[in-house]
Amino acid sequence: MDQARRRVLKGGGAVGVLTWLGAAGVVSFPAHAAEPVFAIHGVAAVMEALGAAGATESAAVEIHAAEIVENGAMVPVEVVSRVPASRQIALLVDQNPTTLAALFDLPEGTAPQLQTRIKMAKTSHVIALVEAEGGFHVARREIKIVQGGCA
Amino acid sequence: MTEPVRIRATASEGMTQVRLMAAHPMETGRRRLPDGALVPAHYITDLTVLHNARVVLQARFGPSVSRDPYLVFSFAGGVPGDTVSVRWRDNRGEQRSDSVTVR
Q: Which residues are A151's β-sheet partners?
């Protein structure tokens, strides 16, 4: 079921799903949304759309970041997964207008560890969601923001 | 006009580490100028990293990725002299592709 939903989201069927979500008041559409899942608001709704509603908290996924960051426009974050066969990493920010920040597909041979920089509108939980062999593993970490970035 | 992606790819002990920074404003579409005018959304939506012709990372971004997107990651394989390239496309349809030789 979850796998089927993921395929639907990746294909053109996503429009139908989003039309339904839109009618249900779950989704708002920013201009030029590249991929529908980025237009979904809220951690639970994004995880549901990714097929990860039943994701389990896992100590095998780590988010490395400072506890307090001065400038929310540029928050360095590193995600490390020790879950075998990690194939996708999603990075979500709970309190941002755009919940999903980035989605990384890792082909075989690419290490499930990456560093990037994200915007955070205010102090919030950052969520790393790792897909591995059909299962989802999640880690959360609060990052305090002194000066919010325009996220 | 787009600017080149800055890329560094270093091979060591069977892995190649890639560091990249793609020059891009990553405007969310929510920022206002002092006169109150909204700055239109302008951000990279897709970024792909290739080792020679093989995809080693496929990233999809929303506007919450910081200005001048920065990534560090590693893939298995790669020797000095190989090519690592980065392609991106943004929400306006602009594209760019740059490559570097693995050191």
A: none
Higher-confidence residue: A61 or A150?
Answer: A61
Distance between CA atoms of B72 and B84, rounded to whole angstroms? 13
Q: What is the CATH number of domain B6-101?
A: 2.60.40.10
DSSP 8-state code for residue B65:
B
Nearest-Cα distance to chain A for B52, in Å, is 14
**A144: part of which helix (H) or strand (E)?**
strand A135-147
Residue A123 has pLDDT above 70, yes or no: yes
Domain A2-147 bears CATH identifier 2.60.40.2470:
yes
What is the spatial distance between Cα A144 and Cα A99, in angstroms, rounded to a whole number?
Answer: 17
Provide the pLDDT confidence category of residue A46 given band limits of 50, 70 and 90: very high
CA–CA min distance A94, chain B (Å): 11
